[in-house]
Amino acid sequence: MKIVVIGATGKTGLHLLRQAAAFGYEVTAYVRNPSKLKDVAPAITVIRGELTDRDSMVRAFAGARAVLSGLGYANLKSGPKPSGLLPDILTAMEKAGVARYIGISSGAAVTLPGDKKPFVAVLVGKILKIFREDAVNDKREEVKILSGQHTIAWVLARPTRLFGDALTGKYQANLYRPRKLWVSRADIADFLLRQVESDEWLNKAPFVS
């Protein structure tokens, strides 16, 4: 089964690539700079392309079960906002016949109806709004775009904070309240990969912690 990873050269994206083999997936990494993946498993197909190039994405996405995104806050520093790229990504997915988008949101930045965040998580969100308003607005816009369309099924994981790289498998997903205030990047990658074939969280944005 083929999956495509975008944002694959970031910290979480690299975990997605390294763990995907254990799930038995045929993995394509769609990236701007393939040289950043020279030390990643050779079984991965690396395609160079821009997330603004619909035709290139359609070719790369063809035959995939899902597109997984490692795009996060860091990407705001070096290029277009991820939410600004999302409409083209979704259009390319539709043209390529890919019906599932799986990505990373933010439990601190994004509040949804029914949320019961602990005080500390609310405080982190307010602090983030002060110092990274661009990132907060971007993550909120991402949810609006996905929930406002009905062609592509989606899952967004909402970690309050990404911390560490250990794969523990001890995380939990909860729709309204995070169990902890942090989760490792490896555990988030594990959760995202499990959504390729699971329908449990389709069209939802659970906290993962």
UniProtKB/TrEMBL annotation:
Pfam families, per database record: NAD_binding_10
All copies of domain NAD(P)-binding, residue ranges: 7-198
Residues annotated as signal peptide: none
Molecular function (Gene Ontology), one example: biliverdin reductase [NAD(P)H] activity
SUPFAM superfamilies hit by this protein: NAD(P)-binding Rossmann-fold domains
Superkingdom of origin organism: Bacteria
Listed PANTHER family: FLAVIN REDUCTASE (NADPH)
Record-given protein name: NAD(P)-binding domain-containing protein
Organism: Flavobacterium cyanobacteriorum
Lineage: Bacteria, Pseudomonadati, Bacteroidota, Flavobacteriia, Flavobacteriales
